[in-house]
Design goal:
- The protein is mostly helical.
- The protein contains 10 helices and no strands.
- The protein has one domain: Hypothetical protein af1432, CATH 1.10.3210.10.
Length: about 200
C-alpha cells in the first residue's frame, strides 16, 4: 500500500502566511515551521541547560515542525479573523483537528501514534508553551525583517508582538530576547561571520 503523508507535508511550501499583508518577502508555512522548530529547540536547550529544568529540546523541535501541518488542508486563516471571537476560534480549532486527523490517516497505522502525539501536543501543556513562544518569536522576526526591507506594513504587528513577548512570563523567552533577538537587526557584515 502507498501513502500520501509526506507528499502532503511537502505541500506546506504552497501555503502562504501573512496573506492580508503586503510582504517584501513571502513566507510559507514550511519556512515558518522550520524557523519555529529552530527557536523551539533553542528554548528547550535554554530551559534544560541554562535553567536546569527537565526538557527535551528535540521533542520541542519535532512538535514545532508539525505545529501548522493542518494548514496544508485548511490554509492559513489570518489572525484578526481566527481570534475575532471565541466562537470562531473554537470552530477553527475543530476544523484544524479534522485536518490533522485526515493527514494522520495518510500514514501507515504503525506510524500514526507517533505523529498523532506530535500533532496533538496539548496547547496548554508545559512542553507546548515553548512552541507557542517560538511561534511568536518567529512572527516578530518576520516583522523585523520586513521593516529592515523598508516595508512599514508590519509596523503595528511588530509593536504588538514585541509587547506580547516582553510580557511573556517564561524565563526562556526573556533569555532569548536578551541574548539573541538584537542580532536580527544586523546586516551580514555586522554579523561578523568571517574574521581576518
Amino acid at each position: 500500500m502507498k501513502f500520501d503523508f509526506f507528499a502532503l507535508i511537502g505541500r506546506m511550501k504552497y501555503i502562504v502566511r501573512w496573506s492580508l499583508m503586503r510582504n517584501s518577502e513571502r513566507e510559507n508555512i514550511q519556512e515558518h515551521s522550520h524557523m519555529v522548530a529552530v527557536i523551539a529547540h533553542a528554548l528547550g536547550l535554554i530551559r534544560r541547560d541554562v535553567f536546569g529544568v527537565d526538557c527535551s529540546p528535540e521533542r520541542q523541535a519535532a512538535i514545532a515542525l508539525f505545529h501548522d501541518a493542518g494548514e496544508i488542508l485548511t490554509g492559513d486563516l489570518p489572525t484578526p479573523i481566527k481570534y475575532h471571537s471565541r466562537k470562531i476560534k473554537s470552530a477553527y480549532d475543530e476544523v484544524e483537528a479534522l485536518a490533522c486527523s485526515k493527514l494522520l490517516a495518510t500514514l501507515p497505522s504503525e506510524l500514526r501514534p507517533a505523529y498523532k502525539d506530535l500533532f496533538s501536543a496539548a496547547e496548554d501543556s508545559r512542553e507546548y508553551e515553548l512552541v507557542k513562544a517560538a511561534d511568536k518569536i518567529s512572527a516578530y522576526i518576520k516583522c523585523v525583517e520586513e521593516r529592515k526591507a523598508g516595508n512599514r506594513e508590519f509596523a503595528s504587528a511588530e509593536v504588538s508582538i514585541r509587547a506580547a513577548l516582553e510580557s511573556n512570563p517564561l524565563p526562556e523567552v526573556r533569555y532569548f530576547l536578551d541574548h539573541f533577538i538584537d542580532a536580527f537587526e544586523k546586516n551580514l557584515d555586522e554579523l561578523n561571520t568571517i574574521e581576518d
